[in-house]
Amino acid sequence: MALPESSYERLRAADCADEIAYVQACLRLYFSGAATPAGDVSTPNLSATAVADIARLNKVATFVLKALSRAPVGERPAELFQWLDTYRRRTVSMNAACLMDSMAIHQALRDRRIDFVFLKGPFQQHLLYDDHFMKPSGDVDILVSPAGFSRARDALRSIGYEVSGKSRSVWWVRFLGEQHMIRGNGPSTVDLHYRLQQPGSPSPRDADGFLRRKRLVEITGTEVPFTSAADTLMLSCISVAKALFNHEPCAGYVCDIRASANRLGEADQQRVLDAAVSQGLDDTLLLGLRAADVLLGATGTLLSERAKPILSRIGNEDLLNMVIAPWLSSLRWPQRRTVLWELCGRAPVRYLAEVGWAASADISRRIFERPASP
Questions:
Q1: Domain tally for the chain?
Q2: What residue numbers bound the domain in which 337 lies?
Q3: What pTM value is reported for the model?
Q4: β-pairing, 189-193 with 139-144?
Q5: Which of 34, 122, 301, 354 could bridge to 132 as Cys pair (CB 3.0-4.6 Å)?
Q6: What is the DSSP annotation of 190-259?
Q7: SS3 state of residue 143
Q8: Same domain, yes or no, for 210 and 234?
Q9: What Å distances lie between residue 9 and 4, 57, 251, 328, CA to CA?
């Protein structure tokens, strides 16, 4: 089943409420556990192409595949299942290349004694799902301290990476706090970060804390630095806030939130809440958790209960569509300043500071943007 580049536009024009509900049902089935029977997974009155589009855009195609795999072979929707299986094979190929590049990058940064931590990608997928190949990863995301940013960039250049032209600008370096680096025609791009959120949403007060709290995970006999369990959850919530700000589908990030939260006991959940407060990200955390409850069902846990009031003026149906189908013309989007006010805890000083930072970034991007020194 071919997915043309116009799939986003096609979904915007179509009435795909049933297809959205089908993908959501598959995600809930995936998270319900392997012992839960699949039930009726047929798609007699649905567009298999639309289902595939929704799954691909949200990066949840493998979740849908694993859910449908529980049904007897003769009951699976054949065309959709074949497309999902092909998607999974491509994901395996892409992520295998990403893992190989990650190991070379790890060696280069370790040789120069640069403190860093990997973010997201196949490492996170294995930690959350015991599978390196749940979502396609074409980027290797790395966080360093502001002081180590230039040194890390030089280390990556020593193994053939160069800064992508678009990310040389003042907006990328100063306001996003990251640069893309590419190596020839290689499959992976390095996203080198020293910030963890774009202007317009609250950023962590202490990004270096993600480096201090890192854990070591083993891959092919080598230990590599990765974010702590609590920080992995927090970063997924940051990604959801960023996606909502940009009106991008983000069900894949929401699945990561649920998978992360499922691994936390009640005491761990309280520590996560306390850490989010100290970072000024408690409302960002709660927004991500509420999105997970709306998409995948509430859990009745401490985190789930705390998330109920966040952005309560946005109804569950609207929030669900903001997450999984932001292209819908019927969707009632809240004003960005309203969301920012909530994520700033309705604190005027914090809100005005974030608004000023976002305005400065916008001016830089649209008017004064020019190449920065590499």
A1: 3
A2: 228-343
A3: 0.93
A4: parallel
A5: 122
A6: EEEES--S-TTSPPPS-TTHHHHT-EEEEETTEEEEE--HHHHHHHHHHHHHHHHHTT---HHHHHHHHH
A7: strand
A8: no
A9: 10, 12, 19, 10
